[in-house]
Amino acid sequence: MSFALPIVSVIMPCFNQGAYLDEAVGSVLAQTCESFEIIVINDGSTDRETVRILEKYDNPEWIVHSEQLLKSHEKPNLTVIHTPNRGPSAARNTGIRHAKGRYILPLDADDRIAPTYLEKAITILDNEPSVGIVYCQAELFGDRTELFDLPPYNFPKILLGNMIVNTSLYRKADWEKVGGYNENMIWGWEDYDFWLSLIELGREVVRIPEILYFHRELPNSRSQQMTRDSWVKSYTQLFANHSQLYSTHISTLFQELVNLRDDLHQTHCQLHALQAQLLRSQAMVSRMQSSKFWQLRNQWFKLKKRLGFKGGDDLFPV
């Protein structure tokens, strides 16, 4: 690998994820684009195996021997930065401050990317100066294996919910302009908040229509631990961080509120109709059971049971 300045800096925070780190790093080393550096930020890991693996990466004599990952046996351009535990926003900001690449790709230490992701994303950013975010379709693996079901990017609908994966390529210069990842997103969604910051700069967003990013699903992940209260607090913080953006497009929020009201009203009407139908059916059954025919039918079946008689059900069909 060349020692010239890399085109892309892959920023990889790691907190006790050593069991998956080799796989994540390996997916970067397997890229068709070779002009990159990897910056692993040890975000105060306490897990013994994670610390051991990070020490291996931190060793200047570390060599990757896999022919599948490198075309030669030279040392990959990988740096480890050790910090106290401060969370993913601070870890990413620390790594990006040390980054030499003009493009940034955040990658969690338990995820991985397809071999052509960097090459295809770089081509778009190189050729389209107005584009500030390049992402791709994604797939879940681990506890669940399925398509990561996110709608295509749409503005202003992104104000209602994130639709851009955290592992997306962007310019370091834009990161500097917006002041990096906002560390007040303490319940999560720091990537969502960051995308809104880039959108506020007027940057366009492009999604590559291929599955090039793989997100590992684990039990008790941060997203799964979010409660209703943390959702409310996160949306409140998003609005505080981007009040002008939300205020300018407040009609989008109210439109969604009206849509939800209409959906609720339609559901209520359907339930009311079903309830009325059920009451009519119950009334019909009640009238039938009180009829002379039904009473005679019941007497017939009681007589059959006493006499042990089989057959004759066609006389009084159900």
What does this structure look like?
It is built from 11 helices and 9 strands. It has helices spanning 18-29, 48-58, 88-97, 117-127, 172-178, 190-200, 222-225, 228-241, 243-248, 250-289, 292-307, and strands at 8-14, 36-43, 78-83, 103-106, 112-113, 131-142, 146-147, 170-171, 204-217. A 5-stranded mixed sheet has the order 3-2-1-4-8, with helices on both faces. Strands 5-9-6-7 form a 4-stranded mixed sheet, sandwiched between helices. Helix 1 packs parallel to helix 2. It starts with 7 loop residues before the first strand and ends in an 11-residue tail after the last helix. The model is unreliable at 63-74 (pLDDT under 50).
Helix and strand topology:
Layout: E1 8-14, H1 18-29, E2 36-43, H2 48-58, E3 78-83, H3 88-97, E4 103-106, E5 112-113, H4 117-127, E6 131-142, E7 146-147, E8 170-171, H5 172-178, H6 190-200, E9 204-217, H7 222-225, H8 228-241, H9 243-248, H10 250-289, H11 292-307
Parallel strand pairs: 1-2, 1-4, 2-3, 6-9
Antiparallel strand pairs: 4-8, 5-9, 6-7
Helix pairs in contact: 1-2
Care to give the gist of this entry?
This protein is 45% helix and 18% strand.
Question: What level of helicity do the residues show?
Answer: 40-55%
β-strand percent reads 15-25%
Put simply, the count of helices is 11
Rg (C-alpha, Å): 30 Å
Unreliable parts: 63-74
SSE order: EHEHEHEEHEEEHHEHHHHH
Large-scale geometry: elongated
Oligomer: single chain
Mean pLDDT: 86
End-to-end separation: 82 Å
Number of strands: 9
User: What structural class should be given to the helix and strand makeup?
Assistant: alpha/beta
Largest sheet, strands/sense/barrel: 5 strands, mixed
Biggest sheet strand line-up: 3-2-1-4-8
